[in-house]
Input
Amino acid sequence: MKIEIGKTYRTRNGNKAVVELVIPEPSRYQSRFIACLETEEGWDLRAYKEDGTFGAGNGPLDIVSEWIDKPEWCKGNPAWARWQAHDAYGNSHWYVSRPYFENRDFNFWENSSDFEFSSGPIPKQFNPVLPLGCRWQDSLVEAPEGWGK
Output
């Protein structure tokens, strides 16, 4: 993967990293890129090598892919819904408990909850748009804080 200035990337631990500076000819011990890394505490500067590794590499702050935004939370979800996700067919569903992949060969999320209404389809008029480049497998979104209260 070619890392470029101004682009946004995802780190191994799921944080967002925005490349702000490229060092044209770094010495053997210098980093190639400076990125703003979004953390729970705010933004922090980090130095990355040419291949996107941070420090010794193979750690949680390494750059692993380009950043892809997730869909927005659907305002048409029931108050008790806590999760939503797209399936491979373009449909969105809400879930009471966090869904998972039981079998990666299937094209949908599964939910093991014993509740009678543990999941359901989101009506087409409320169906959130899957952002460009977002795979359905990456579309899982948790309800915003305070949802349904």
Summary: The CA atoms of residues 86 and 92 lie 4 Å apart. The two ends are 43 Å apart (CA to CA). The first strand starts at residue 8 and ends at 11.
